[in-house]
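Q: What does the assembled structure look like for these inputs?
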Amino acid sequence: MNTALLEIENLRVNVAGTPVLHGLSLAVHAGEVHAIMGPNGSGKSTLAHVLAGRPGYEVTAGSVRFDGADLLAMAPEERARAGLFLGFQYPVEIPGVNNAYLLKAALNARRRARGESEIDAFDFLDMVRAQMRVMQIDEALLTRGVNEGFSGGEKKRNEILQMLVLQPRLALLDETDSGLDIDALKVVGRGINTLRSPERAIVLVTHYQRLLDQVVPDQVHVLARGHIVRSGDRALALELERRGYDWLLDAAPAVA
Amino acid sequence: MSALERLLGEFAALAASDAGVDGAGRRDTGADAAAAALRAQGLPTRRDENWHYADLRALEGIRQFRAAPPAQRTADAQLPEPLEGHARLVYIDGVLAGGSPLPASPALTRLPVAAVAASPPADPSGEFAGDARMGLVARMFAPEPLALRVTGSAALEIVHLASSTAANCHSHVRIELDAGASLSLVERQLGFGALVAEHLPPAALHCSNLELRLGAGAQLRHTRLQQAAGHALRFNTLSAELGAQAVYQLCQLAAGDGSERTTAQFRLQGRAASLRIAALAAARGAQSADSQFSIVHAAPATRSEQLFRGIASDRAQVSCSADVRAEATAPGARVQQSLRGLIDGPGAAVNLRPRLTINTDDIQAQHGATTGRLDENLLFYLLARGLEPATARSLLKWALLGEVFTAVEPAPLRRAAERAVAVQLRDATATELLQ
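A:
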């Protein structure tokens, strides 16, 4: 098998001195969609934020390689420019920072990192408008502050819009489905599927399998007490839907 | 000898020797009354609550108070591009340059100097009189007081320059807007302009006193951009009285290198008078930028809004006090206050003091004041999108200030204001973008 795009080995992470991830290992190859499921407090969001480089998470052991590079040695902005995208569970509002400006600045940061020239303003607008149509986002939101006054659904769709504009190699989507009604879920699912390609990978962090009806994963992992306790295909997600997590928690190693 | 004794002594000597600018004997410009008031009140001290955050230590260090002698006033190169449609007055060391030309506008006339003298010291109510003491200094030492009357629609730019880093500059201007008149007023306080070595004690004192009276239905749009270099200690005093349905929009940007104190007092005297203040202060080094706004709602259905945004970098101190009083005579008043400050340095401080005193039952008032460092969540969000940390920090700072910039009029001045603030914040990202 070819080298994994993302390779996590024995990752241990503390948050405020408390161990949260206890030796997690995972390999994600280009072209794959992985779903990481698990109960509250299992470490799903911690994993997503550690990979994106959020301050406040202490890696005590293990390694993460992204496209062959040491991800943990990179600053958050370097990870983003290398092609990693974190879709936030709770996208922040930034009044005064124009949505379009952020999109363009982020895109140009990636392009510069790849040695490309900055995008032409008209090409940028054409491209963003096309992606906004995919995500069914009102064009008026482009000139508003980032997520300013957006509904919960609009914020999540805006995250996926950013992902589509930036075309990351690896998208980590942290509970992108939370708070979405069924119609919005379909739109978000369609947006995520648009990104699927043999060159890219997607990791969906979610509680529920309903998003997986829209974005069918290649692999499903259950994270419990800071470990991956079970991996399987989509059938595992359906089984979790029927049986919940308790039967797997019994199998999870106790936390020291 | 105390600073007050030295100041009054200098004034007495000046009054004794001054035969008047026009050589026709000493004119009554109200300077004597101002001196008497200052003698009674004394100079402000840090024990005065409303002066607690002003840089009064620097004031103690000022060796001379009177304006510079009229010798080396050549500073044309320092003048910014003219603003389209605006008549321009240039003060150099407090003296009008070019023979005191009258602005070429039929709606704008110069009043006899007696009109300046006739105006009482600021704050008719007296409650905030102590806050306007440095305005008295401006009245005492202003070499060329000026009174203007606006009868129609006019636009005026007043530029304040200094001929050297050591030149004191004092100005005293009174502008009266007749009923229904409108004025676009731009003040640019540029000082000597060139940057000098930082962290030196100020060598010069710049005091300005601006008095405004808006008749019924008059409209005033006023932008004040302070970007003087750090060799001067600046005190701005402003007082305004608004008649019925008068509208006053003040946009003030303190982006100079030196310490600065603004005292601004407003009285909404007529029914449905309206005031909007949008102000920002950007300070760094060991600077102090202190703004004291006092607003009295004295009539029914009056409205006021105070928007303040401040950024304190390094060891700087930014302060804003917004003191609003709604009298019993002001039912139906509306007050809106939003004060926000950003602490952007290990030794920096932001002090925000909102205060509402309400003496009427019928009022809508809302206020909010927040101070803090850059929000780490917002910063991480931008970094996670690939932005450089410096760019992300810059974006968040400009987001904070954005509401004030949108209030800058006329539009061509906005760019200059943004550039001035970018330079003051040492924001290379924004400075490059604004070239």
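The mean pLDDT of chain A is 93.
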